[in-house]
Amino acid sequence: MPRGYGQYCPLSLAVEVLGERWTILVVSRLIDGCRRFNDIHRGVPRMSASLLAQRLAQLEHAGLVERRPAPQGRGHEYLLTEAGRELEPIVMDLAVWGQRWARDMVTDDLDPGFLAWSMHRRLNTEAMPPGRTVIEFRFPDVPADVRRFWLVNTDGVVEMCLKHPGFDVDLEVEAPVRRFVEAWRGLRSLRREIAAGVVRLEGPPHLRRAFPDWLLLSQLAPYPRCRTGAEQELAAETTPRWIPDAQAQ
Length: 249
Fold this sequence. Notes:
Layout: H1 10-18, H2 23-31, H3 37-42, H4 49-61, E1 65-69, E2 76-80, H5 82-85, H6 88-101, H7 112-120, E3 132-138, E4 148-154, E5 157-161, E6 171-174, H8 177-184, H9 190-195, E7 200-202, H10 205-214, H11 230-237
Parallel strand pairs: 3-6
Antiparallel strand pairs: 1-2, 3-4, 4-5, 6-7
């Protein structure tokens, strides 16, 4: 168990459970609806599997998580208890605070694996064609093992693939990872990045035009950057963020 602070203060007692490295992020993945171990792990790709198992056990011991046999197949699923579910608005408020006030990103923060996981949960599938649509994302400026991933939407069900899914690709997206993440977080306009050729699209014209409407962006993108620094200046320069008449060429 985590070491205590030696204080009866309820905040101290709460931080004993939630203050260890990765714990809040694991709780966030559970809030997002991840139940199986591998699904949770995909949402924290830089966390080791052994440490994830340890954190889940700690959360279970603390009464925030209940482990049950999976209803289908082998293994277990992890569900938030009432105490765990009460953390949802707290975690969201903390994320909003981070969007507004946390430090500017550095290169090591630009994790394509986490970007892939985030994006697969934020596709506007109602705006996408019926049937199957395969989007390939390429980031040439990151290590080769995380340079590409694919999102496959099949009638509203989205899968994230770190290996080629075996289907024909309908649309290819290539960009420097920082510029794309900045657009994803709402610090840049995605449409302007496409119009400027920084985010490059390859595919049929109607799919290139529709692509900005497929991405809902981060749910934190609407919250303005408040901390003084390069990201606040960038966001100010790109306001307004949405340009209705801009189209991919």
